[in-house]
Design a protein that fits this description.
Elements: E1 7-13, E2 16-23, E3 26-32, H1 47-64, H2 81-89, E4 99-100, H3 101-107, H4 114-122, E5 135-136, H5 149-161
Length: 164
């Protein structure tokens, strides 16, 4: 069995440091608000994943500048079948809009699984790219967010301010 080569880099962003990790198959992890684990944020790279990282960095910078509404970077989405189904459905939520946990549970064919959907969202390994921040409670409350509600508010405001 071949060893899976992982490369990582840190990205400075308006919401703090973001650690991006990729393999030759695609970006598989976005950690918001991380603390540097490698000196000076230098890129730890493997040949196969560097292009994926460069693309992810570029697209996220454009996103934070309000110039990117869709991501094209190759993703490697790893999780349970249910989780992947939930995360995949996130892509149908348009930039600048929100949907409820109930709406998302209906989209994936489990109309009574709002809590399970919320749990899957808390495990989303690719926040922002798989936009779980666009999911809110039915009453309009924010619900939760793995990187914190301040980050969720920031992302929703960024998208709202750049829609149109």
């Amino acid at each position: 069995m071949l060893e899976r080569k992982i490369c990582s880099t840190l990205l400075n962003s308006p919401i703090g440091l973001i650690e991006l990790s990729a393999t030759n198959r695609g970006l598989f992890s976005v950690k918001i608000g991380c603390t540097p684990r490698f000196i000076g944020g230098a890129r730890r790279c493997c040949e196969e994943g560097c292009e994926v990282l460069k693309c992810a960095e570029h697209e996220l910078k454009e996103y934070f500048e309000g110039r990117r509404k869709e991501f094209t970077v190759r993703l490697e989405v790893v999780g349970s079948r249910f989780d992947v189904r939930v995360w995949s459905a996130l892509r149908s939520i348009p930039y600048g809009e929100v949907r409820s946990y109930r709406w998302l549970s209906k989209q994936i064919g489990y109309p009574n699984a709002c809590r399970a959907v919320g749990s899957a969202l808390s495990r989303n390994p690719l926040p922002i790219l798989l936009p779980c921040h666009r999911v809110v409670r039915e009453d309009g409350g924010l619900g939760g967010y793995s990187a914190g509600l301040d980050v969720k508010r920031f992302l929703l405001r960024l998208e709202r301010d750049n829609t149109g």
